[in-house]
Task: inverse folding
């Protein structure tokens, strides 16, 4: 959908000089956007307009529960001034996808052949999404430019099609199931400190697959 195809309705008049000035500033900013930023801006504006028309965010109960487990409360999602959660999610997904690497790039990071990377993508021991032009692997699974020890075990616990936003948040957020000296660690931190990959996999599975 392009901005030209947004649903039409009679625009509301500004409520004063402040509103008029804000509208002028917004239009001035839009004219300065170029390249990939145009798509992101269009996505944001489309989501905002759709939210105004429908007054809905379209989140399922499972999505609300997942966001709640990651620190985003339902009242926060209901704030009228907040950018719709579905729009935020799509934007973050786009940003994550833009930071994905190709099979060849992943092979260079891992020091293996491209055939081995494709084999691991198909087996689920690397987090990857199949596209028409081949596999794409989110770079966040290679913190500091390398594969964490035991990552293949954790990757298998992530269901195919899991939102990249939630997956990354789970992997980088402290889990009460992963503790060293009483301190809760994120799965990536746990692996970096030599923690049991099976324990990390169970924590990820609990966060992504066993939502209340």
Result:
């Amino acid at each position: 959908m392009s901005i030209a195809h947004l649903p039409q309705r009679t625009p509301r008049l500004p409520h004063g000089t402040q509103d008029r000035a804000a509208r002028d500033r917004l239009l001035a900013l839009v004219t300065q956007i170029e390249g990939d930023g145009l798509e992101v801006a269009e996505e944001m504006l489309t989501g905002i307009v759709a939210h105004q028309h429908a007054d809905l965010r379209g989140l399922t109960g499972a999505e609300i529960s997942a966001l709640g487990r990651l620190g985003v409360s339902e009242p926060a999602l209901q704030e009228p001034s907040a950018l719709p959660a579905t729009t935020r999610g799509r934007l973050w997904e786009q940003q994550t996808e833009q930071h994905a690497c190709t099979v060849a790039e992943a092979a260079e990071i891992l020091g293996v052949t491209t055939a081995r990377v494709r084999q691991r993508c198909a087996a689920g021991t690397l987090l990857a999404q199949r596209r028409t032009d081949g596999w794409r692997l989110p770079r966040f699974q290679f913190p500091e430019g390398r594969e964490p020890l035991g990552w293949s075990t954790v990757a298998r616990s992530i269901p195919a099609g899991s939102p990249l936003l939630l997956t990354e948040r789970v992997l980088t957020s402290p889990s009460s199931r992963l503790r060293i000296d009483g301190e809760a660690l994120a799965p990536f931190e746990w692996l970096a400190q030599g923690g049991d990959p099976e324990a990390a996999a169970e924590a990820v599975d609990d966060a992504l697959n066993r939502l209340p």
Q: What stands out?
A: Residues 98-209 form one domain.
